[in-house]
Amino acid sequence: MRIACPFCGERENGEFTYLGDASPKRPNFAVDGGESPERVEDAFHDYVYLRDNLAGVMREYWYHGGGCRSWLVAERNTVTHEFVSVTAAPGAGAALAAQAGE
Amino acid sequence: MADFSWNTQSALEKALVPGRHGVAGTQAGVTLEEVRDISLVQVMARRGRAAETAKAAKKLFGIEPPRAPGAAVARNATLIWSGPDQFIVFSARQADGQFAKVSKAFAGIASLSDQSDGRCLIRIGGPRARQALAKFCSLDLDDKAFPLGAAATTSIDHTAMNIWRGADGTDGHAVFNMLVFTSFADSLWHTILDSSLEYGVQASSAHAA
Question: What is the pTM (predicted TM-score) of this model?
Answer without folding.
Answer: 0.89
